[in-house]
Amino acid sequence: MVEDRYSALLGFKYGAAGFLPDLLARVQVRYPEIPIFFADTRALAEEWTYRYLGAAVAELHDGAEGS
After folding, report:
1. What is the distance between the alpha carbons of residues 12 and 20, in angstroms, rounded to a whole number?
2. Long-range contacts made by residues 44-52, C-beta under 8 angstroms, separation at least 24?
3. H-helix or E-strand containing 39?
4. Of the four listed, 3, 10, 35, 59, which is most buried by Cβ atoms within 10 Å?
């Protein structure tokens, strides 16, 4: 979870232009099973995390009933 906009990577002032977007692309290719999600604000990040964990619990519960 990244609490910022993707566009903020493009405006990074302390490295070569495009360094962070290139690095992020490499991480996503190397670890495709790990989602990277950009939320504009902490509130949106918390909302997404709440829903993600709720869905995970529901999936776990549904899987346990089917066993």
Report:
1. 8
2. 45/1, 45/2, 45/3, 48/1, 49/1
3. strand 38-39
4. 3
Identify the burial level of 3 via C-beta atoms within 10 angstroms of its C-beta, where 0-12 means exposed, 13-18 middle and 19 or more buried: middle
* Per-residue model confidence as pLDDT tens digits over 7-17: 888 888 888 88
Domain boundaries, the chain: 2-66
Q: What is the mean pLDDT of each run of 10 residues along the chain (67 residues)?
A: 85 87 94 90 91 94 76
Amino acid at 63: G
Is the whole model's pTM more than 0.70, yes or no?
A: no
